[in-house]
Amino acid sequence: MAVAQHVPAEASLPTRSGDFRIRVFRTRGTEVVAISRGILRGPQPVLVRLHSECLTGDALGSLRCDCGEQLQQSLETIARAGRGVVLYLRHEGRGIGLANKIRAYALQDEGLDTVDANVALGLPVDARDYSAAAAVLHELGVTCIRLITNNPSKIEALRRHGVAVVERVPIDTTPNPVNTRYLKVKAERMGHLLDPIPAPLHRPLVTVHYAQTIDGRIAARTGDAHWVSGEDSLRLAHELRAQHDAVLVGIGTVLTDDPRLTVRLAEGPSPLRIIVDSHLRIPLEANVLTDGVAKTLVATTPDASSERAAEIHARGAEIIRAHAAEDGTVDLRDLFKRLRARGVRSVLVEGGRGIITSALRDGLVDRLTVCIAPKVLGEGIAAVGDLNVDYLRQAMTFQRSRFIACGEDVVFYGEPRHDDGEPREDDGPAA
Question: Catalytic one among 128, 146, 241, 308?
Fold first, then answer.
């Protein structure tokens, strides 16, 4: 096993994530930076992140990868735990070096993915060696770890070098309009374990997505919503559509905007379009009924007109009748249950205000993605209505929440905390 030599370079490192110690080690001609917090030696497993250097992602904020976000999340995780270490490794471009990585980027610009670009250059897909990392861990007295990673290869490599990995701690990043394909390739071709939220058993996984101004408006007081967000956020919206089985909006959105709800600014199929329309007010000339690009389903209540339903059906749309809520609108719980029975496993809710509010209030949202544009409207249509919150302690809170830049906008991503005990696919048998 390689031996790590501690270079006489050590200091405190206060960061936005917390206070750390930074040390430098040299082994096999390379330097390894250890960014640590707390006492590492001891019998309890230590949180560890092996982070491969990425100039473009870590320092320049490139959206082509998720490296910078992974580094920040790892530091935040260790800061919260009070004990752990990030090893910053000189592995630029998965070990091929900066110049070759930029050459690979150029081939990706021409259409190759991250794996095929390396192969086209005659380079290995992943040339990283973790022996130096293992040597530094041993020098630090760390032999039993909880590894922050989605990459099984890191676990195997450390175990080969005598480091006991007792747990994999997943690290989840938010896709942006540029790196969605990159993340998909990492999962499908490189074996990375990108953990999705486990789907509920009796309804689809629900993501709510909308664009708002800084002051929380999704439209001006006239109803004008073209366009709240910038071009990058629009591409993100299309990426999200391509990732879901269905996209759902209320009839108000159709009457105001006449959207197509298809995928045009990204790669991927257009999802099933669902229009929630309690009184079947949808115009027969609406884009979702006339463009023929994707299937449309109109969700209504048992009281809606059969004659009007027949006219809509004649336009090619399917009618589904769900239970009515107390106010006469479509009961979203019942609708989602019926959708899941039809094989719809994921739904992207894009509006409007009433649908978003109902989904949040009824605890039906698994992910919230909000594009926040640098605009102020003052009076206008708020994104979310009354959630029956009277005190701050009742406010909806989120786990795994974060903000990322998206062109001129900022995107908030979070998963609402639910205590309803709703069964999900990865739940084990009841005790």
Answer: 128
